[in-house]
Amino acid sequence: MVDFGGWDMPLHYGSQIEEHHRVRRDAGMFDVSHMAVLDFEGAGAQALLRRLLANDVARLREPGKALYSCMLNAHGGVIDDLIVYFLTDGRFRMIVNAATRDKDRAWIERQAEDFDVRVRERADTAMIAVQGPQARERALQALPPPAARAAEALASFHGAPAGDWFVARTGYTGEDGLEVILPAGEAPAFWDALRAAGVAPCGLGARDTLRLEAGLNLYGADMDESTTPLESGLAWTVAWDPPERAFIGRETLEAQRGTDHARLVGLVLKEKGVLRNHQKVRVGGVAAGEITSGGYSPTLARAIALARLSGVGGDSCRVEIRGKLVPARTVKPPFVRHGKPCVTIDPI
Amino acid sequence: MSEIPEDLKYTKTHEWVRTNDDGTVTVGISDAAQDQMGDMVYVEVPEAGRAVQAGEACAVVESVKSASDVYAPVSGEVVEGNTALADHPEWVNREPYGTGWLLRIRPDAGVALDHLLEASAYTEFLAAGEH
To answer: What ipTM, to 2 d.p.?
Structure first.
């Protein structure tokens, strides 16, 4: 067990690597109840979110559609990354990180003062992510019938309420699956039902290696308030159009756009070893930056990383590991998607 | 409860030491240590011929979670590193006292093993660390 943002969470239930493979090959589940659920309600909800988020919730036209976005400070730094669901007119649901919940809420409440909106944290809910190629099929056996019907009909990156439950076809692993928000009291029974349906319990360790293989950023490691989305591989989440939408942080991003700023890239080690956070990276003999998330990829059986680098040319670099410079290949994430490698692995 | 064989000696940095008939000692990490670290993914052992001082970092074990130095329990010369672990780091998890051994050292003349912990002392040391 480890402390994670004030929550006591299991790193693994036995073997982190086995849990990782279960998600890539079959189905695994994660208790992600530490993540915070914020409900936005009011005529001004959409206007507030269009000011608050770098991505544009006006793109969400059908109920249930989800959007991944950064929430920026006035200098374009990332306060948090989050998912927001459009429920109905004037209603949105937002999922934010656990470690950032207090500062997120304070920031949102400050910005919300000028808008006709009520923001409510749902502390009464639990959240379970079921992920893997067999995840949906197995979860349908464990969900109560109304939630199962809603889950069965979901398109990718959509969510739907079913009574007190909310099911979404989203995740953090690079596999298909569901994230289920439910009344906290019903979570233990649902967990047991998933287990009976053949879903393996997985800890924070596997969650981290899975998201790293999927090329998904971890807040606090790959980006924080000192980095912009453009420097964090998240330019695709910035909605530049319409140009008149004045989201917080826009001026900084506009000024940075098109310049030769630092970028987040993927690294695959060419030799044996493990890449770790904060190892220094050199390109052409010159210091270029450091690893923001490094680890061992169980799917590729090789060390991989995300690194923030300046002045990258070509596809090779060297990483300083315990005083030695070890060659690595720079790649565009993801490393693995739907169980399949999507980068070049150099033979050793 | 982790396995702590009676016939081995231990260090407070979780290495185990076995005295062989030829006077060399075999070194590995304890069951408790491998369990704490989780799935091993990389092991680096020293080359034969390297001289090591007691307490000197002489091997590295890396799990999915973290990297740890392994310290020479005695001063001497490395006779052999378990190079098979480069392809099978999981042996350290599976058989920490068997196929997962890390290196063999020929202790320098006059080096005693008195400073090492007996199994019972190591058991107590682990128990104290849990509180």
So the answer is: 0.86
- Domain extent, residue A75, equals 10-213
Residues of B in contact with A15 (CB under 8 A): 38-39
Instruction: Quick: pLDDT tens for A313-333.
Output: 789 999 999 999 999 999 999
SS3 for chain A, per residue?
CEEECCEEECCCCCCHHHHHHHHHHCCEEEECCCCEEEEEECCCHHHHHHHHECCCHHHCCCCCEEEEEEEECCCCCEEEEEEEEEEECCEEEEEECCCCHHHHHHHHHHHHCCCCCEEEECCCEEEEEEECCCHHHHHHHHCCHHHHHHHHCCCCCEEEEECCEEEECCCCCCCCEEEEEEEHHHHHHHHHHHHHCCCEECCHHHHHHHHHHCCCCCECCCECCCCCHHHHCCHHHCCCCCCCCCCCCHHHHHHHCCCCCCEEEEEEECCCCCCCCCCEEEECCEEEEEEEEEEEECCCCEEEEEEEECCCCCCEEEEEECCEEEEEEEECCCCEECCEECCCCCCC
Chain A contact for B12, CB < 8 A? no
In-domain check, residue A318 = no
Residues of B in contact with A272 (CB under 8 A): 42, 86
For residue range B47-100, list pLDDT tens digits in order.
999 999 999 999 999 999 899 999 999 999 999 999 999 999 999 999 999 999
Q: For A19, which residue in chain B has the nearest alpha carbon? A: B39
pLDDT recorded at residue A200: 98
Distance from the Cα of A15 to chain B's closest Cα (Å) equals: 6
For B9-107, give the CATH class: mainly beta
Count of structural domains, chain A: 1
Across the interface, do B38 and A12 touch by the CB < 8 Å criterion? yes
Domain ranges of chain B: 9-107
